[in-house]
Input
Amino acid sequence: MSKKILIVFLFVFSISALYADTTKQVAPTTNSPSFIQRIESWYKDNTNYYSITALMACESSILPVPSEIVIPPAVYVALDPDSGLNIFLIILFGTIGALIGASFNYIMSKWLGRLVIYKFADSKIGRSFLLSSEKIQKAENYFNEHGKTSTFVGRFIPVIRHLISIPAGLAKMNYLSFLLYTALGAGLWNCVLALLGYLAHGQQDMINKYSHELSYVFLIIGLILAGWLIIKTIRKKK
Output
């Protein structure tokens, strides 16, 4: 999961929540939307099958977009009868997006070869995508140890999930087998994420009740992650 994406996600919505709470204090007679209601409203306005497919394609490629902030919120919104979204179609298009992103990694790795891929991972551009030769090597070792089934099982393992298609391409794995294992793994993983979104919607009243406290929790987590990344960057430079 991308730390940078998570930090941005946490900051945006925690600040939004704090703003909502401030509005409530200034004008208590107005019905300002809660933290969760603002998140739900944003996702309802911006989530559709095209965006789900595009974001999941990014998640399965080298672009660090966590699937955890795509599928569960989309399912959460889909449980609203007026959303126009269907949970099963969310899973379907999320899986199609994963196949697109994974195929991109597979084809580029097969075409460019190991030397270019490893050099790119350690380049400035590669580092900006949170890549490194160590991560690629980890994914390749996992693929070598578990064979073709790693493209299925690897979909459930952080870091390995969006990189496992690279060693599959380097090893010139049969493309149809690659698509089959990837579709099964990505589809099952999306079902798990969809279940999380469904369970979260079941706790909507409790979440709304404690939305103010949750906003501070997200803000604190965001600050901790930001501080950790800053310290890590300073240590690397030294």
